[in-house]
Amino acid sequence: MTICVVALGKIGLPLAVQFAAKGHRVIGADIDERVVELVNAAVEPFPGEHGLAGRLKEAVAAGLLTATTDTTAAVAQSDAVVVVVPLFVDAEGTPDFGWMDSATKAIAAGLKRGTLVSYETTLPVGTTRTRWAPELEEGSGLKAGDGFHLVFSPERVLTGRVFADLRRYPKLVGGIDAASAARGVAFYESVLDFEDRADLPRPNGVWNLGTSEASELAKLAETTYRDVNIALANQFARFADRQGVDILKVIEACNSQPYSHIHLPGIAVGGHCIPVYPRMYLWNDPTATVVRSAREANAAMPEYAVDLLAAAYGDLTGAEVLVLGAAYRGGVKETAFSGVFPTVAALRARGAYAYVSDPMYTAEELAAQGLTPHTGEAVTAAVLQADHPEYRELSAEDLPGVRVLVDGRRTTDPARWEGVRRIVIGG
User: Fold this and answer.
1) DSSP letters spanning 271-328
2) What mean pLDDT is predicted for residues 331-336?
3) What beta strand segments (E) does 105-229 contain?
4) Could you give the maximum distance between any two Cα atoms of the chain, in Å?
5) How many alpha carbons lie under 13 Å from residue 332 in its C-beta half-sphere?
6) Which pLDDT tens digit goes with each residue over 140-151?
């Protein structure tokens, strides 16, 4: 096959490399000329994806992967099109389809009879059928389900470990009709490999969920579940703080039997997925009170962490506080919806001077995001926001003068913080 991957970002480019590794010709389309130039030069445009650099070089050297800014021309040469264009939502969860509409129009202009189009970007339920199908039909003159096949197949991977996750998790597919779904299943079976998993109710591989709506809901449901579960853990942790109980021991005890799967509490829930997709679900289902309450509970955790700091430290007016970690997750250079921003805002609202450091970011990169980089200033308090592995070795000696540490991720070693009041959430 010839496959067009639309948008060569942190998910799209690894997908393109994976497809090429299975022997298919892949054309990556992206509106960013810099990304296209780097991919054609076999240079990864972003760091941190395990195994990408070597696989990209192999795919380009074999002539199986090229990149272009001309999406329409790339689609015109392709038997299948995989769309991984970002969808943005505002604070209320209202989707902004601007980028995806533009990409879809460009795809439609090059679409030829018999092509499969698969959207992998997480979408509100019903979007594939009610938005993309009409746009593709209008721009191509072809009928969805007859002139071309159309499916939704959500990405289920985390940046940094995309290739491992592609093998680990079943690939979900749903079509606008049975023929589209079957074509989608056949396509993904030809481009992916799966590891054996005895824990699944059926063999690992491509799972046909039938309709595009079912596949769209599956993605929103699995992510929303995590947000709700974390919110429950956070509420347990806040209660445990008032009772003088270590919530981690409680959670370990609960999860020792197979019917309890309580997640871990923490200072913030960040990233492109968990804070975003529950809002998208609420856009579909505004009556979902459990989902709404969970999102509010998790959004309140950075403020709660600062409450813990103030209770131990005293008045924060004029205090110089170091926030450890700008990334939303340890080991990942990404600040999307990171807890660093509300944590810094809460500190500043109390009159503190909030500095930020992160082993993955330069001072200039932090400043570009509106944060005040720590460049050696003396600080008297610290809040750990991201669970970078480097922080496991951090000690009081590294931050002389610090009197209180709020470890929002239970990452630091308590033995290294003698003489400092170390506080954990729920503990």
Assistant:
1) SSSTTTHHHHHHHH-TT-HHHHHHHHHHHTHHHHHHHHHHHHH---TT-EEEEE--SS
2) 91
3) 116-119, 149-152, 171-175, 206-211
4) 72
5) 19
6) 999 999 999 999
